[in-house]
Amino acid sequence: MKWLLIFLAGLLLTVGAALVAYNDPGYILIGYGKWTIETTLTLFIVASLGTFLVFYYSIRIVKNTWQFPARLRLWNKQRHSTRSIKVLSKGLIALAEGRWREAERHLIRYAADSAMPMVNYLGAARAAQEQDASDRRDNYLQLAHESTPDAELAVGLTQAELQISHKQTEQALATLMHLRNVAPKHVYVLKLLMDLYISLEDWRSLIDLFPDLRKRKILVGEKYIELELKAYIQRLIQAGKEVDALVVHRIWESIPHRLKSGKDVLYTYLRVLLGRGDNDHAEEVLRNVMKRYWSEYLVYLYGVLETRDTTAQLAWAERWLKKYPDSPMLLLSLGRLCIRNDLWGKARSYLETSLALQEHPETYHELAVLLERTDEAEKAHDYYSKGLELVTTGQFYKRRADRSLESLLLEPVS
Q1: What is the CATH number of the domain that holds 330?
Q2: How many domains does the chain have?
Q3: What are phi and psi of 341, to 5 degrees?
Q4: Does a structural domain hold residue 349?
């Protein structure tokens, strides 16, 4: 429609000019030196217009001839680009559908002609991974990096993900540590590092990562507290197996105060100390804990501990008796501590009071042993029998079945 209007306008203009020229063709004279040119104005205009058109199209022909190789290259490049987009689409569809071999073939076929070759190579790397072809995978990742050097983070993250899924933990760790140097604040890098440390049970490194996890809000609220608690507990357990005893104490000092007061961390610390035979330190920790918490289990544990200063240990336990006179476990522990200090009469009094409050197999046993020492064999035999009956009939454990050891561990002081 546009060209039709132009043609009609040109036709009308030509006809109008012809009518004007027919009535008055005009006259023009051009002189230069000895030369003169006479002609009608109409003929001059037509000749000038014809010359201009010939000159203009001659230049266009020369220009197009000169630019022909470049235009041919551009056309060829566009043709390859269109073809690469179609093949890339096929490759991505095959990748999504799990046809790994076909996906790899399509994705690398025209990767060099792709507008974003990195996408082709990263997809091909995933396809090679699924075929257990680590060498081809690493080659594609290298090509992806070379094709788009500015996308080092994207390529590195893909490499780390593939290495993790292929159980190449050491390589994945090296990749992520490099990426952390490149982008220290990158959230996904930190998250992958966190997951990798957990799977490797590298609690020390995970603990070092906590400030960044908290600052970047990768884990918040209960999830963060649970992971923090687990990491410190596992680190304490690991330290308990090391030769250097100071490692345990250093870790304990590094634990945030808000976690130290929790029963899980305290119980783990005590277990580690007892496992190492560090009873004196365990007794000190127990005393500090008992200032804030009351626990039948812990006071029972306090009586089992064998320290070098049993007199001081007994004195501390007797202080608690003023506040908890009706605690059967405290009375049992006091009985045991008195026996260690050769205070047999006092021990007997504590043990009998404990039995009056609650029958316990161990209380019967301790009292029986004590009576044997005081030559009361018949009575000792009676207590042995009662303790054994309590265990074999299951009455004691049946009464306590509704309370797990964990629930008795550290109960807050009311």
Answers
A1: 1.25.40.10
A2: 1
A3: -95, 10
A4: yes
